[in-house]
Specification:
The structure is a homodimer.
Chain A (H helix, E strand, L loop, with lengths): L24 H8 L4 H8 L4 E2 H7 L5 H13 L3 E6 L5 E6 L1 H34 L7
Antiparallel strand pairs in A: 1-3, 2-3
Chain A binds a DNA duplex through α4.
DNA sequence: CAGGATCCGCTAAGATACTG
DNA sequence: CAGTATCTTAGCGGATCCTG
């Protein structure tokens, strides 16, 4: 076995050898990679929430987007939607068991983010300084 | 303290109490939540790759999208771009240390995905059956 | 309160052609 | 090979109005 060749390749953590090409990563990202899903999930991690409560908890989200977001999360079995036939109507959203398990993943994301936020920010500034008008942003 | 009130609230895994509102989750998702970044990172987790190698390894990506993707990853300090002034030109992309750490996160995503893929798929079929023409997909 | 229905602008992303 | 430049399109997401 030849030495001298300094190729590190730090052990393939993701070999992606299971599926035809992309693991199932894209499947997850297609669900939580959008603008709002994670924020809704994070809020629901605190407990049961009603529609308006969610909208207030996630500033900037429109009714339309909130509706679409909770519908998709419900469709995937990540949250439940309970309608109480009162007047005025009352609808409660709650994480399912799977939804809660997703919460752990979100925490991993948050942890990684807070750990590297500074480094990324500095790398970005440096890159922007070296590439003044690159169009990238 | 009253009992009787069955509110579970299964321990807030993500309390999100650090930042003003959304933790740093969106920051990560804005980087890897797009259509291609993760796939490129996964491929680079195998080792150093050249431009065309990456494009072949990620079927369906266009030159333009690959360029944009690697530029952004480079800007964020997740990969390095090394140009060898040969002819024809040769450019090598490689994960940085931070890029490799991101790899662990991606593995967590892949694991969660493969664990729940079945459940999600079934939940989705059931939902679609109950809501024939809802517009959601 | 909890949404459904519309209209509409913006940008991400694909296709194509060209360059050092 | 490794890109850049340009054009075009799809659809995400915002705003607004309306209903049970």
């Amino acid at each position: 076995m030849s030495v001298g060749h300094t190729e590190v390749t730090t052990e393939p953590v993701v070999s992606c050898g299971d599926e035809h090409e992309d693991c199932g990563i894209r499947e997850v990202l297609d669900r939580i990679g959008d603008k709002w899903s994670v924020l809704v999930v994070v809020e629901l991690a605190q407990g049961v929430r009603r529609f308006r409560q969610l909208q207030r908890a996630v500033p900037g989200i429109s009714q339309r987007m909130l509706t679409l977001t909770v519908r998709r999360l419900e469709r995937d079995g990540l949250i439940t939607r309970t309608v109480y036939p009162t007047v005025p109507p009352q609808v409660e959203y709650e994480l399912t068991a799977m939804g809660h398990s997703l919460t752990h993943l979100v925490k991993a994301l948050a942890d990684w983010s807070s750990e590297h936020r500074g480094v990324i920010s500095r790398a970005r500034q440096e890159w922007d300084a070296e590439h003044p008008d690159s169009g990238i942003r």
